């Protein structure tokens, strides 16, 4: 199974971002990836005031472009995330998932909203304009089940655990850590979720733009079920492509049976 993460820049022009994503998919088609993932808010500069302005209903032009790309390149597309508005006017940070025919087979609304205020560091308050989702998202493929969560969701160990217990083999994470939490926690968090669930994790971030209102850490990453970093980009625009060996996941789970050794009667999820 081959996965690809597109660490692309995000500019103000939504359609330009959609074209950039398409250009990258065209470029990597010779690699024949099975799964392609885009960054969090890949078509909308990551600032709370932008979310309601850029938001579209499910099935809108950005959704349609992603569905078309998935069908054209015959890939599972985890379409990063984009602001979604519902009938009631609520805005969500939403990741749509498409199959190889361009059919939507999953949809994750970011569940844990990113409201932080680090002294002399990053401030952000997604809840100013966003509403949170209310469930974990797992979708089925010919390789088995896969999970999707968005950025801050990764900090909540129970969330990845529910996906692993539900049978997910890999968790895809459109994300955008920043210059405060990125160096401190990005790699550590991916390795931790990978290790404690014995699962592959793939994070896809926007390329860093030092002029942006919110500066992305970049460093798209893939970690294995042993907790090891398989590959990690730097901050610049680029593509991460990696072969994933799911048998290795089975072997690790068999040899070090952490998931089986849980005392589930003692914990409540
Ligand atoms: O958890 C973090 O440090 C970053 C989270 C974030 O940037 C996000 O949820 O968009």
Automatic annotation (TrEMBL):
Pfam families, per database record: CN_hydrolase
Keyword check for Membrane: no
Domain of life of the organism encoding this protein: Bacteria
Residues covered by the CN hydrolase domain: 1-246
Similarity comment: family membership: Belongs to the carbon-nitrogen hydrolase superfamily. NIT1/NIT2 family.
Organism: Blautia wexlerae
Keywords: Hydrolase
EC identifiers of the protein: 3.5.1.111
Protein name: 2-oxoglutaramate amidase
SUPFAM superfamilies named among the record's database cross-references: Carbon-nitrogen hydrolase
One Gene Ontology biological process: glutamine metabolic process
A GO MF label: omega-amidase activity
């Amino acid at each position: 199974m081959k996965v690809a993460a597109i660490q692309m820049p995000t500019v103000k022009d939504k359609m330009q971002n959609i074209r950039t994503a398409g250009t990258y998919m065209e470029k990597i088609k010779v690699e024949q990836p099975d799964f392609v993932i885009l960054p969090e808010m890949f078509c909308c500069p990551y600032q709370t005031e932008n979310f309601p302005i850029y938001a579209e209903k499910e099935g809108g032009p950005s959704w349609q472009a992603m569905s078309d790309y998935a069908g054209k390149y015959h890939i599972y597309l985890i379409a990063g995330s984009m602001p979604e508005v519902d009938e009631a006017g609520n805005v969500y940070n939403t990741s749509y998932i498409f199959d190889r025919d361009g059919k939507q087979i999953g949809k994750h609304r970011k569940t844990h909203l990113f409201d932080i205020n680090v002294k002399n560091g990053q401030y952000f308050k997604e809840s100013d304009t966003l509403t949170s989702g209310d469930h974990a998202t797992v979708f089925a493929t010919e390789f088995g089940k896969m999970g999707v969560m968005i950025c801050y969701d990764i900090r909540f160990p129970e969330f990845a655990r529910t996906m692993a217990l539900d049978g997910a083999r890999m968790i895809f994470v459109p994300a955008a850590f920043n210059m405060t939490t990125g160096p401190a926690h990005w790699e550590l968090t991916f390795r931790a979720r990978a290790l404690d669930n014995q699962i592959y994790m793939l994070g896809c971030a926007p390329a860093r733009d030092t002029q942006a209102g919110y500066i992305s850490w970049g460093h798209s990453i893939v970690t294995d079920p042993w907790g090891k970093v398989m590959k990690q980009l730097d901050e610049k625009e680029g593509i991460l492509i990696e072969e994933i060996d799911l048998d290795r996941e089975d072997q690790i789970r068999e040899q070090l049976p952490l998931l089986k050794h849980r005392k589930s009667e003692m914990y409540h999820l």
